[in-house]
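Methods — Computational structure assignment.
A single polypeptide chain was analysed. Its primary sequence is given first, followed by the predicted tertiary structure written as structure tokens.
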Amino acid sequence: QLSNDVRLLVAAFVNQSFSPKDIIIAHKNFGFDNNRYINNEPDLFLSTLETLLIEKYKTLNFPVSLDDFVSVQGTIPLVLANYSLLPEQRFLNMPDITTSLLVKTHETVKAELQEQRKKVNKSQTTEADQNNIAEKKFSDEEQIFFNSVYENFKNAGLNPALIQASRLSSGIFNVEYVEEGYIGKVQISTTKESYRVIKQGAKRATRVFDNLIEAEQFINEKSGYSIEHIESMHIYFMQYFIGQKVHNDNFSSLQELIDTIPRWVRYVKYMKRNYR
């Protein structure tokens, strides 16, 4: 397998061009050290580079001519691994002709990812119940949970004042960190105990009662009905991200929900590292 140095020389002198993959694989040979999006968004980086090449050169390859080796002032040293050559023969200068292209690709990918995040954030908040947002009314368990959220963010060196919780009409909260955008959802609720009166063969309840006595009184004068007891149930739900993968989990207690708050903290730090 050819080293990057040899591959570049062959591409330059034989093909008189660099392919997008050549440029990306050997980006450090061209003096471009910021590999954040090359590693984290390889497909997007490649497609963006291809688009820029087509826009500027009307081809997928970066054209190289012998004049480039003479006229370009900036150079990148290449070291050949063939030790049978004299020292001065092993060191060659490659014209620094792709660094600006790699920088532009990096910035274009960065802008595209920011735009994608804006669209996701907008779609996540369009259902928000504005009245509930303004009132910011929390149940006791919700208050305990969000107090823990603020404490976790503060202890992690993040500003808890940037946390925003928007309650949807369903009772679920969309949670955002203002500088980074949407970070997940949370639902803390309790369903009431109830008694559903269902007609034989029907899928939906005819009536729902809060107590058994009222349900029995309703069916006493009717035939073909049965009573289904629905027990009270606690809901502890959280949505969070690990990298770009979304997770939706249900927990059995409020404490388990609180113990998962660090997932939000880690995701905010991940966004700061990779999309700033």
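Note: The longest strand covers residues 181-191.
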